[in-house]
User: Fold this.
Amino acid sequence: MSNRVTVLSLLVEELREGRIKVVDLTQPLSPDTPVIDLPPQFAPSPPLTIEKISEYDDAGPAWYWNTLHLGEHTGTHFDAPVHWITGRDLANNTTDTIPAHKFVGPACVIDVSQEVAQYEDFLLTREHVLAWEGEHGKIQPGSWLLLRTDWSKRTAAKEFLNAHEDGPHSPGFHKDCVEFLARERDVLGVGVETVGTDAGQAGGFDPPFPAHTIMHGSGKFGLASLNNLDQLPATGAVVIAAPLKIVNGSGSPLRVLALVPAG
Ligand code: 23J
Ligand code: MN
Assistant:
């Protein structure tokens, strides 16, 4: 029994031999981490603040530790269905009640970095997804749909949030596309490199914030502010994204990892 070759014993060997790599999809978390800028009539999410408790000093002679103050949706973070009004009455819609098996799943990575370089308000359509499927195969139920835009290469907060006079500009999804992904592909959720799963201008869409509205209304999740999506294959990576078990939490910062076959 203990010497049996299983997928897990093979996984351990492949990791040790470097045939499977662990790619960190997480943005560094600090007081400089950009936080979403909502219109002024809405309450803002604060930036992260860190306060030292002790650092090998009178307050704690042999230990160093800090207190964090931050919004649930800060930096690389997970959106739970309860985050949106459309998901408020669903079962298991909070960070503490989502079944843990949903925190491990395959990734489909759609690369639209060329399009986004030309047009910062680029929106993914159902037709883009169907074209991707023509090349890579149908999206299997329970997959993350990760949108590679290279937006994470904008490491300065100003360029990352990209606020113009008429509000923020960044890529996202058409309403029809998220409806297709949720209803016809039964994805786990969508993951993006931008500050939120909706496009910068999505507050003015019909419905407003369609990715949040439709994904969370369908019990699906979101991952925002991802990094290193350019290191993932179109298919074949496995994503581990487990939010903190905050009771009644609407989301949480988290470390997102991808297991990827080595080149
Ligand atoms: C609240 C209102 C609008 C948006 C968001 C939060 C997010 O993007 C988020 O982090 O969930 S668009
Ligand atoms: Mn969020």
